[in-house]
Design a protein that fits this description.
The complex is a heterodimer. Chain A is α+β, with helices and mostly antiparallel strands. Chain A contains eleven helices and 14 strands. Chain A is globular. Chain B is built from 21 helices and 31 strands. The longest helix of chain B has 28 residues. The chains are: A alpha+beta, B alpha+beta.
């Protein structure tokens, strides 16, 4: 690993002014669970590391029935996984975290670090997309909020300007009769999914029709992928097994997934179809279970 | 028989806690990377960015100017020295001088005051290359006019063997069924967590000390003596604790090993090099990838009439141990099944990939995989049960005192395969299980069987030396000196247990001295499952020699015949009258003080490695490579996700293991579970280095998969005791044979579950998925035709 400068600001203000001062030469490190791996492989050699892990004001989980969930960007995966309020109100987040890497990584890695790494294979992003989450970003010019879907620009590239920090993830309360699920193709528990999928389904209990659907896939494109094609297959209809399969096919049809040592593009395409079907089915069951 | 046998002993044959366990778990055990020496520098190796290129010039001038740099070397500092596995195969330089033959081969090295500076200096070394076209598979290497990896090796052939026993063609012609198929085994990492690391220093200008993670410390002892023109007496190799090996790199030398020694010489200060995980996974020795075409003939009853192997193998850039690997692919084909006709054609090719070498189940692993899968294919075709076809072919355990000789003159005194197979089939209730429905929802379940064998006490011709020294200290404690090494398998414990057992003392009374070539006897180290069998025999003989000296003294003191003196439970007494006794400590003290200058030192060596039958002949494929042979049978269940192709092994798995007599039941079980079942699961389902023109694409343990606790199912180990007459206390090797049986058992189980054959390891999800899809589509077409 190459030598680098290092500072650990104590609060968000300090971090932002330091990053602004450094211009494009500062690189933010939070838990470092993704970044240190690529630094060790000499794929990334930052001149200066701004370590924000110690900024305690960004480590929180707040829940309000009307406003929903607010997660500080420096909350660890493990805290989210084990949070009683998340288990009760957004169980899909705990479900996702349980399969995110290993306990050691979850103990140290932060949710904001994960989102800002911009890896299209990341698990949290697709779950937050189907939960309709927004991101709060702070910079010298103040705060802005964006839809998480718009945060991802390209492979490992997110919508953050120099001097800006992601500070919070906001998840609205789910509508009634809504179920969410996340699942991914793992060879081993905790693997980065060869393909991952998340789904949220809302049903009308009166007639059983699907009134809302959000479906997103990981590791199938250069950014996290929301499949409106799959959603459109389901919305407005009573979901059957055949319809779920059709949604899977619709999602798969629009993809040209990348290939790597874990799977070819063709395999990923087939698995996208399967995992959309599987997760949508689980989400539907959960929605229906709400009676 | 086994039980009575156990009761004769005080220590061995029971679960014995490891002698070094406390040191390891409390962090006191020092590994090579932990060693710090005063005034020490850090070294770093400059590596080639080309897989095949001529080196035109190396300019170190910029690096020399970097503050903190203390020495820089290139291959030229070694004055044309070459080394190899044997005299005729000395084809490798410590650092490449004229040509690099694989990606990241070392070309220079730097010693500096810290590792970062050494690394930075390496970046400043400018090497001018002329890139050359390379060969990256044996099939490219064998082509007419292919680029040569070594200019003096036409055809890129590393080694080849062509053996012929009986009349294979005639046997095939007369067979009821002949089946041929090609199987593929991939290149695999050894997967040690401890990196290769070395500290070297020159206390005086003609004396070398080398402390490294070496499972075969007497290899660097001889190689460095020759390289630096030192008498062996002046080469001191000291072996710290070793954190795993699994064959290969820690037997052999690396660019880093030579570099530390030369840098230390040049800088006049100690130098340390620790390989990074990236270096380890891109340049260390791997398991040979092989393409095994096997043809098996059988009679109507499933009895094997003949086997013909045609094997193509990728040896990588240098010969290394390939002559032994490929010999081993064939030498044990005559067991555990009776084989009347046998032909073996194997060719290993040089390529511009990192070199291949020994890995657990060395050589035998590949052909066992092919044979065990083919047996299932044949069983299905003939309508014979898969366990039954094995029973029909198994070599029965020879009557005590008799020897079974294979068609290629391998001699077997004990073979527990039949009992192993019976036990595993019963344990998994195969008779009921085979009738069970295989498919439940989108999952399929299947059971597979395989057997395995492995040599123990490898006979390495010139390197066979194996001795022990047992020094009895005046307070009754004992130093046990051996040239053998424990790379994690527990042989230190077994050696100490043997010494304690023979002397009738406690395990804690025996202290093992790890290898220091200044004091310990020469030995090939951990190589070919030889330590327990050969070093164990040497330990018995050394302890007996010490006991003889003490017995003479005890007989005099107790007024009895020497033959009557018994050593047990730290008492020395007369057999006919236990009251006539003296405590061990007292006897030792008296013996040591009896005459001025007297010391009790027992010496012993292993004779069996050279005394037995016929030494193996590599050119004809005849003779005994082992002192004796272990046998295994395994049953493994898998769960296949029919929609994704993901395969999981379940806990419903049993390995029955004939290691003759388990000297330490706990060590045998943990080795069989962790060191062969889990390693076998890993080989069957997960592990493969993916390559692109010499570049390793998954050189990290995220992308190169190995099972962790989540994925590692537990298996049951059943001991089958055969008490081999040629092993110490009846012992044979443990767990290399069972490394070989796991992959075919699992692949056979996948076939049992789904009907698809995965003939190229590993059965990664995508491969299984397409095979399932192809099968489904074929069936649908058939349905339509109907």
């Amino acid at each position: 690993m190459k030598d680098f400068g290092y500072a650990a600001p104590k609060n968000v203000g300090e971090a932002i002014s330091l990053l602004t001062e450094l211009g494009g030469h500062g690189k933010v490190i939070a838990g470092g669970q993704s970044m240190l791996v690529i630094m060790k492989q000499n794929m990334l050699a930052p001149e200066f590391l701004v370590d924000i892990k110690g900024i305690s004001e960004l480590d929180y989980i707040k829940y309000d029935k009307k406003k929903g969930l607010n997660i500080g960007a420096l909350t660890t995966h493990r805290t989210i996984e084990r949070s009683p309020v998340i288990k009760e109100t957004y169980p899909v987040l705990s479900e996702m975290e349980d399969n995110l890497a290993v306990v050691q990584t979850r103990n140290w890695g932060t949710i904001g670090g994960n989102l800002c790494h911009g890896d299209p294979a990341g698990d949290p992003t697709v779950v937050f997309i189907v939960l309709n989450a927004r991101l709060k970003i702070r910079g010298t010019a103040g705060e802005r909020e964006i839809d998480i879907e718009d945060f991802y620009k390209d492979y490992l590239e997110v919508d953050l300007n120099p001097g800006e920090l992601l500070v919070e993830i906001q998840v609205p309360p789910p509508p009634p009769h809504t179920g969410s699920a996340h699942n991914k193709l793992m060879v081993m528990k905790g693997d980065m999914g060869i393909v991952g999928a998340a789904a949220t389904i809302t049903v009308n209990p009166a007639d059983g029709t699907c009134t809302g659907a959000r479906i997103a896939l990981s590791n199938v494109a250069s950014t996290p992928w929301r499949s409106r094609a799959a959603e459109n297959v389901l919305i407005g209809k009573v979901i059957t097994g055949e319809l779920l399969a059709e949604a899977g096919r619709a999602a798969s049809a629009e993809l040209e997934p990348p290939a790597d040592v874990h799977g070819s593009s063709a395999y990923r395409k087939e698995m996208a179809e399967l995992f959309v079907r599987r997760t949508a089915e689980t989400a539907l069951k959960r929605a229906q279970a709400q009676g | 028989m086994g039980k009575e046998h156990t009761e004769e002993y005080s220590i061995i044959g029971k679960p014995i806690p490891r002698v070094e366990a406390r040191l390891k778990v409390t962090g006191q055990a020092k590994y090579a990377a932990d060693i710090e020496v005063a005034n020490m520098l850090w070294g770093y190796v400059k590596r080639s960015p080309h897989a095949h290129a001529r080196i035109l010039n190396i300019d170190t001038s910029k690096a020399e100017k970097l503050p903190g740099v203390k020495a820089i070397i290139t291959g030229k500092d070694f004055n044309g020295f070459t080394w190899g596995w044997s005299q005729p195969t000395r084809d490798e330089e410590p650092l490449a001088t004229k040509k690099v033959r694989y990606l990241y081969e070392g070309v220079a090295a730097v010693a500096a005051i810290d590792e970062d500076i050494a690394q930075e200096a390496c970046d400043l070394i400018e090497v001018e290359y002329e890139p050359l076209p390379g060969v990256f598979t044996p099939f490219e290497a064998m082509k007419e006019g292919a680029p040569l990896v070594h200019e003096n090796r036409p055809g890129n052939i590393t080694v080849e063997y062509h053996w012929n026993f009986g009349d294979v063609e005639k046997a095939f012609a007369e067979s009821y069924l002949v089946r041929e198929d090609t199987f593929q085994t991939p290149r695999m990492a050894k997967g040690y967590i401890e990196p290769p690391a070395t500290v070297a220093y020159w206390p005086e200008s003609d004396r070398l000390v080398f402390q490294g993670a070496k499972g075969s410390p007497y290899f660097p002892y001889r190689i460095l003596s020759r390289c630096f023109k030192l008498p062996l007496s002046n080469v001191r190799i000291i072996t710290p604790f070793i954190g795993c090996d699994f064959g290969g790199t820690k037997n052999d030398m690396t660019n880093g090993d030579f570099s530390t020694v030369m840098l230390a010489k040049k800088a006049g200060r100690p130098v340390k090099i620790v390989a990074s995980q990236f270096d380890t996974l891109t340049t260390d020795l791997r398991r040979h990838p092989m393409w095994i075409t096997m043809k098996v003939g059988v009679a109507k009853d499933g009895k094997i009439t003949a086997i013909h192997n045609k094997i193509v193998s990728d040896g990588g850039a240098y010969t290394r141990m390939s002559p032994l690997t490929h010999f081993l692919t064939g030498i044990c084909m005559g067991m555990p099944y009776h084989l009347p006709n046998f032909k073996h054609d194997v060719t290993c090719y040089f390529t511009n990939n990192p070199s291949s070498a020994a890995m657990r189940g060395h050589g035998i692993y590949h052909t066992t995989f092919a044979r065990e899968c083919l047996l299932d294919m044949i069983a299905d075709e003939l309508g014979i049960d898969r366990v039954e076809i094995r029973h029909r072919n198994i070599i029965k355990n020879p009557e005590p005192g008799t020897i079974y000789e294979t068609i290629n003159n391998v001699h077997i005194a004990t073979a527990g395969t039949e009992e192993c197979l019976t036990k595993v089939a019963e344990a998994v209730k195969w008779e009921e299980g085979k009738k069970k429905e295989r498919i439940k929802g989108n999952k399929a379940y299947g059971m597979g069987f395989a057997t395995g064998t492995y040599l123990s006490g490898t006979q390495l011709s010139a390197h066979n030396a194996c001795a022990a020294i047992v020094r009895v200290c005046e307070d009754g404690s004992v130093n046990y000196l051996t040239g053998a090494t424990d790379v994690g398998m527990g042989s230190d414990t077994v050696g100490c247990a043997i010494v304690a057992e023979v002397l009738g003392i406690d395990l804690k009374d025996v202290d093992i001295k790890r290898v220091d070539t200044a004091f310990t006897p020469a030995d090939p180290g951990s190589y070919g499952s030889r330590v327990t069998v050969l070093a164990g025999e040497a330990a018995i003989n050394a302890a007996e020699d010490a006991k003889k000296q003490l017995r003479e003294f005890a007989a005099k003191k107790l007024g009895a015949m020497e033959e009557e003196i018994v050593f047990k439970n730290k008492q020395v007494f007369v057999q006919s009258n236990h009251a006539r006794s003296v405590p061990w400590e007292r006897l030792v003290r008296m013996a040591c003080y009896d005459a001025p200058g007297r010391v009790i030192i027992g010496r012993g060596h292993s004779k069996r490695a050279t005394d037995l039958h016929t030494l193996a002949d590599f050119s004809t494929g005849k003779g005994d490579i082992g002192t004796n042979y272990s046998f295994t049978a395994q049953a493994a269940e898998v769960e296949v996700d029919l929609e994704t192709g993901v395969v999981r092994c379940t806990d419903n798995s049993v390995i029955a293991h004939d290691c003759g007599f388990p000297l330490n039941t706990q060590a045998v079980e943990t080795q069989v579970i962790g060191g062969s079942y889990h390693q076998g699961v890993s080989a069957a389902l997960y592990e493969e280095f993916k390559m692109d023109k010499g570049l390793t694409l998954n050189a990290n343990f995220v992308d190169y998969k190995r099972p962790r606790a989540y994925e590692a199912p537990m298996t049951e180990v059943l001991h089958v005791i055969t008490n081999d007459p040629f092993g110490p206390f009846g012992a044979k090797e443990a767990s290399e044979g069972s490394t070989c049986s796991a992959p075919p058992a699992i692949i056979n189980a996948i076939h049992d579950a789904t009907g698809v054959w995965i003939k190229d390891l590993p059965a990664q999800p995508e491969k299984v998925y397409w095979a399932l899809k192809e099968k489904r589509e074929k069936e649908q077409k058939k349905e339509k035709k109907k």
